[in-house]
Inverse folding.
């Protein structure tokens, strides 16, 4: 335990001082309950624990300032989920574990002109329509049919590719991170196997913790930001949570092996298998980053297509025109991006890894859509099928301390295997129906894995981020309809 003695900076900020091979200190944002849970894993002797992983991240070459864990932190592959780390471009590394297997998993949220009462009047009809129209589950195939040659265009163009095919509205791009397409993509650095696994999956939700939710605004905390975002109490929103599907997973598998060889080649200690890495400026590092960018664009195309399908469902049930359902924002987690941040009093480019963490830029950043720049762009914090979700925003403090990063969800507290033993999908679906939440899932075992009881208390996580000052609460959302794989 002595090597994990945490220093309390404030009620919501804790620090693991630099020691042994750590190049920078580590910082954890969380309340006492979150910290006690992390320390409890150490006391129980769990080899797979977030504090050990955070210490490993702090030991990587070229890391700057601090290794971060946000309030939704829990063990991941290599990096803890809820982990953030930035690296000097000349001396630093890119680590596969800092991105993960679901590259650019993220949330796209749409605004509707409907109220909660409008949806309640046709809730069953809407649930059935969405379940029919939104491809979900393992092995599902999408609405866009591609050749293997065309998949390269998806990787180069991102959401713009789907838009060219008639999926969505031109104004969607303004309210999408990277305006729907990140540069620096080289499809040749993505394996043929990855492309073969993906070319039928554009416009599919997938399984696991991915979802489409119809939600309503239950409470507003920040009137200024809510006004900038166009949010009102009782307004109905559509949230789509998914990523790069099989392509992103295969990129992870492929580069796990290549970066393992690179770690040995450049003499970088391998502290955990998924923490293998390569210098950013090395051929291996540049290849991996270009493949990650391809995965980012694949996910953006996927969410663009799914948003179009959701609009069609709402048009069929409520008679809305597509342009009446507007983009709020689309922002990803599981990324590595070159950004400008303040380091040692100077603004410089660094490579920011966000593993289960979302970009949460505060006021004044050019990357945010013009209507949001005065308040910072929105971030979406998924709860569970039976609890709240939150819309939050970036802050100036978050820019200074956390490289403009934010929480992305409640964070798991129970393994999927344990959840399947403890919960039953059919019973869970019925219990949620009694609470006014209609769930449609392609797998009862999958529903059990995603039971609310398998996750941390979303309110605890959101409050810790808010009270620490790195993110700010804007609105709380409650689900009405949930579509799961």
């Amino acid at each position: 335990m002595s090597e994990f003695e945490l220093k309390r900076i404030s009620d919501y900020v804790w620090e693991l001082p630099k020691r042994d091979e750590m190049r920078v200190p580590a910082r954890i944002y969380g309340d006492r309950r979150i910290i006690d849970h992390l320390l409890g894993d150490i006391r129980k002797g769990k080899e797979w624990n977030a504090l050990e992983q955070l210490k490993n991240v702090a030991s990587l070459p070229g890391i700057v300032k601090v290794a971060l864990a946000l309030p939704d932190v829990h063990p991941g592959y290599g990096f803890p989920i809820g982990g953030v780390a930035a690296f000097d471009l000349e001396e630093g590394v890119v680590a596969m574990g800092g991105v993960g297997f679901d590259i650019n998993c993220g949330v796209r949220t749409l605004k509707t002109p409907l109220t909660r009462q409008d949806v309640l009047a046709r809730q069953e009809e809407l649930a059935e329509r969405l379940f029919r129209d939104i491809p979900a589950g393992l092995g599902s195939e999408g609405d866009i049919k591609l050749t293997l040659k065309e998949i390269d265009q998806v990787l180069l163009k991102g959401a713009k590719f789907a838009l060219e095919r008639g999926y969505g509205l031109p104004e969607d791009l303004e309210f999408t991170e990277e305006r729907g397409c990140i540069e620096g993509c080289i499809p040749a650095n993505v394996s043929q196997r990855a492309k073969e696994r993906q070319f039928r999956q554009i416009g599919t939700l997938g399984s696991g913790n991915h979802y489409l939710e119809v939600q309503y605004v239950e409470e507003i905390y920040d009137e200024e930001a809510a006004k900038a975002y166009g949010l009102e109490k009782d307004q109905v929103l559509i949230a789509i949570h998914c990523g790069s599907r099989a392509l992103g997973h295969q990129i992870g598998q492929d580069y796990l092996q290549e970066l393992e060889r690179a770690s040995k080649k450049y003499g970088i200690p391998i502290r955990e298998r998924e923490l293998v890495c390569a210098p950013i400026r090395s051929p291996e590092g540049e290849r991996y980053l270009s493949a990650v960018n391809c995965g980012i664009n694949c996910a953006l195309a996927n969410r663009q297509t799914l948003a179009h399908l959701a609009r069609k469902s709402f048009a069929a049930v409520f008679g809305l025109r597509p342009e009446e359902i507007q983009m709020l924002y689309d922002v990803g987690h599981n990324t590595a991006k070159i950004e400008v941040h303040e380091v040692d009093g100077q603004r410089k480019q660094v490579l920011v890894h966000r593993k289960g963490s979302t970009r949460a830029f505060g006021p004044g950043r050019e990357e945010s859509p013009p209507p949001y720049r005065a308040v910072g762009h929105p971030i979406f914090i998924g709860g569970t099928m039976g609890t709240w979700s939150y819309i939050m925003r970036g802050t100036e403090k978050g820019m200074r301390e956390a490289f403009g990063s934010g929480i992305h969800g409640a964070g798991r507290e129970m393994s999927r295997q344990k959840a399947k033993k403890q919960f039953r999908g059919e019973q869970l679906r019925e219990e949620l129906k009694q609470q006014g939440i209609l769930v449609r899932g392609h797998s009862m075992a999958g529903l059990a894995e995603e039971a609310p009881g398998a996750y941390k208390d979303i309110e605890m996580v959101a409050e810790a981020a808010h009270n620490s000052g790195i993110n700010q609460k804007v609105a709380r959302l409650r689900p009405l309809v949930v579509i799961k794989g």
